[in-house]
């Protein structure tokens, strides 16, 4: 999930609690070019106020105009943009693609608030859910997602007759151990990719110089943060300082978590030395050490901080999607 979708569910829950009906829209499928992937969310109120995105803007404008005109009163319906037998849905998308959107009307009831609260908990990593929506009645069921990490690489949305199953999981998170020029570039890339970003460094003077928008800064050892806060399985932990006092401890603590990616910066020689040090002094076994990506990132001949950050984030995204390193 993306941080924007967190904002969607948070806003929808607030509106519902305040007694407002909420229209929750989910991208079900895209055909051809589309700026948003299946699972993307938008929430709206009757007055046209909305949070989230379904496309580049044209679909949202059409949807909100129709909502304010009194459409979408049924509990659930599927709207197809870009190609439809219904003239009202034949909006041509600038990208030339086709978009299917699930529109759910959630009245201001305790049941709706319970649903939105459960979705909020899923997005914050408390548990993974599968949400099943009946296209006939709008009835929604929630179950814990028991899929394995490999199975979670399958499409998040599945159609089963007159039902839609939507997997909801936590927003991808990047924990950066230590402030450095590479850390700055990495945080910028990660934010543009939709990651939540947390940067930890005990050196106050360096934390004070870190200036990337929408990043959570923690003036503490990353190992302390990980030991206290832990992380969910959609978290990547990267150590980027070249300081073993910060990097090594971060790796040891990260290995106690279900993080899908753990990596540390350094040359092949430095990495071999670190591996031996982690086994000898850190008490790690060979299997644990092999879980760490070191040297970190893809081998693209990176030299500058931006190039190294590009290699790191490309590797992180590849591992997240189940791709083997080339």
TrEMBL record:
The XdhC Rossmann domain, residue ranges: 174-316
Matching InterPro entries: MoCofactor_Util/Proc (IPR052698), XdhC_CoxI (IPR003777), XdhC_Rossmann_dom (IPR027051)
Domain XdhC- CoxI: 15-69
Organism superkingdom: Bacteria
Pfam family name, one: XdhC_CoxI
Biased composition regions of type Basic and acidic residues, renumbered to the chain: 149-160
Ranges where the record places region Disordered: 140-160
Protein name (record): Xanthine dehydrogenase accessory factor
Annotated source species: Modicisalibacter muralis
Lineage per the UniProt record: Bacteria, Pseudomonadati, Pseudomonadota, Gammaproteobacteria, Oceanospirillales
